[in-house]
Amino acid sequence: MTPLPTVPLSAVPLSAVTITDEFWAPRREVVRTRTIPQQYRQLAEAGHLDALRLDWKPGDDKEPHIFWESDVAKWIEAASNTLVHHPDPHLDAALDQVIGLVAGAQGDDGYLNVHFTVVKPGLRFTDLRDAHELYCLGHLVEAAVAHHRATGKTSLLDIVLGYLELVRREFGEGGVAAHGYDGHEEIELALVKLFDLTGDRTHLDLAAQFVNDRGTKPFFFEDEARRRGDDGFFARYFPRRPEEAERHRQYSQSHLPVREQDEAVGHSVRAMYLYSAMADLAARLGDDGLRAACERLWTSVVDRKMYVTGGIGADASIEGFRGDHELPNDASYNETCASIGLVMWAWRMGLLTGEGRYGDVAELALHNTVLAGASSDGTHYFYGNPMQSDGEHARQEWFGVACCPPNYARLLTSLESYAFATGGDEVVVTLFIGGEVRVDLDEGPVRLSVETRYPWEGQVRVRVEDAARFTLAVRVPAWANGATATVNGERIDVDALVDRGYLRVHRDWAAGDELVLELPLVAERLWADPAVSADTGLVAVRRGPLVLCAEMRGDEPAAGSLVLGRDALFTDGWDDELDVAVVEATAMADHWPEDADGLYRVTGPDQVAIQVRLVPYFAWGNRGPSSMRVWLREGPSSRA
Ligand code: FUB
Ligand code: ZN
User: Fold this and answer.
1) Which strand (E) or helix (H) includes residue 43?
2) Measured in angstroms, how far is the CA atom of residue 403 from the centroid of ligand 1?
3) Catalytic residues, which ones?
4) What CATH number does residue 385 fall under?
5) What's the CA-to-centroid distance between 104 and ligand 1, angstroms?
6) Whole-structure pTM value
């Protein structure tokens, strides 16, 4: 077998990083102490856990849904992640109990899917386009890897390895699903994780098989539907699917072989998981075709289809992408899972290429749409992350389709691995998170500690704890014009040393040496490309990685009536209630006379100057009903 090429950059395991800063540490503590217990209760109440007992019968309520296992799996993954730094016998036992239930749902031949065991027996692997069996398995695999890494146990790993043997047979030549792949990608990236854990090449090969078969002709899903004789589980949601064949191929990114794809289309979570697997495979197989496709798709998303908040997937009807520059604010779906997927893909692109621009996007999505995914108390969630609201959006405790809450939990609990990376003689700092990391370089282990008040303040202090010769690479975001840095107090030339988005300093580091990066965190206006017609005449405000929004409550003027003048000055402030940094500015607001009436009026509103507090997008919706705008109307002046 040809040896695999060296992976450019590798992730650092969770156990090698401790996060202690004032921004992320308390938020992750909320996830550990509140979100994870709350999600367990929700999974129990909704029926996900009992379903695993396989005693559902036709006529019973709580019919096991096709992808309930995925929600359970994401919870297992999140809970396992927390055990890495917080051993907790109670949670460990709860995990054993849930994994015991999963084990009980597995058939003697390894198959594991409650829906196709008790609701539709005999139909396994006949509706790959819609029925999510391998998607669920993918999440179980990711959970198994996390659980094993955290506890050393193989209970869940054994389950998925058994199931994978069956999958390998059924999806191999002569199997019932030969040349098939799942309509919802996920198994592919999970198999790469399993390969990374076990070193077993068959997992990587199976991932590559699924990725390479996708979109080839004859179209698997259409043949499958003909064989089955019906239009599948989602026929009721997509009654026009037969007439809209191409749109629905795009929905699952199966319209073209993946190497030929250059526009991000279809369901955005699916796309992100596929592109993540493509980047993983490109890195591990040295596959330039996959890498080139990833780079084209990246441009499509980031230059033409991504909201300023890092939200993606504007079209609610497919939970997915619209056309280029079609980024409406009043119909902006932006599923939390999609931004989580964007972080996952961006991180992998960073590992594949060593380029900092991918970290910029990971940071954007993470600090805005991902973090908005849960309330500050960690118990209510956004499924969609709109760009504007007139009171109709509020976080909820749970959803009938509950993909986002546990996805949020697993991302927040694995943040360690997104912050740092290593490869060759390099230690890479991608996200600015205070804490410590231990990295194994060829020369031996090196520890770094990072101190920062980011994203509130722009100073990032990286201290080398062990003497060694290596390159310290610290990302300098593209927005950070005028960033400066020192090494042991001596100014270094950032512009000269920044290489592909990272400030790279190669030297003999002594224990106690410090690199201090100063990122200018100033509030600034953003305007959209005129091709984004939805943003004509509008302006947004960001401060470093945080996009701000106007959130207006009670008797305050509606956020949609605010006009931010070109001459308005920004002042940094702090909001004690939300415990976040804010930006204050004078804006003009519509003030209607008391007796104004009628659908159309001959007297317009007065324009009054008011002080507006712009809050980080992630923090909106935490104080009861409100109106909210990311893009504000722009005027020449904010002076009355
Ligand atoms: O289909 C599984 C998950 O549920 C998707 O990723 C989400 O968009 C939601 O539809
Ligand atoms: Zn979701």
Assistant:
1) helix 36-46
2) 6
3) 319, 403
4) 1.50.10.10
5) 25
6) 0.98
C-beta of 470 in contact with ligand 1 (< 6 A): no
Centroid of ligand 2 to alpha carbon of 508 (angstroms): 46
Give phi and psi for 450, each to the nearest 5.
Answer: -120, 130
Asked if residue 287 has pLDDT above 90, the reply is: yes
pLDDT at position 275, please? 99
Could you give the CA distance from residue 428 to residue 620 in angstroms, rounded to a whole number?
32
Domain boundary among 492, 518, 544: 518
| One-letter amino acid of 542 | R
491: containing domain: 420-518
- Note whether residue 3 is domain-resident: no
Verify that 392 and 502 share a domain, yes or no: no
Q: Which ligand sits closest to the CA of 270?
A: 1
From ligand 2's centre to the CA of 317, what distance in Å?
14
Tokens of 3: 């040896």
One domain, residues 514 and 527: no
Does the pLDDT of residue 7 top 80, yes or no? no
Pocket perturbation via mutation, ligand 1, pick of 134, 238, 267, 272 by most ligand atoms within 8 A of CB: 267
> Domain with 464 in it: what CATH number?
2.60.40.1180
Q: Is 184 in the pocket of ligand 1 (CB under 6 A)?
A: yes
- The distance between the two most distant Cα atoms of the chain, rounded to a whole number of Å, is 82
CB–CB of 369/386 below 8 Å?
no
User: For the segment 465-505, what is each residue's pLDDT rounded down to a tens digit?
Assistant: 999 999 999 999 999 999 999 999 999 999 999 999 999 99
Residue 451 lies in a domain: yes
Residues 537 and 441 in one domain: no
69 lines ligand 1 (CB under 6 A): no
Return d(Cα 432, Cα 422) in angstroms, integer: 15
In 3D space, the residue among 249, 231, 251 whose CA is nearest the CA of residue 239 turns out to be 231
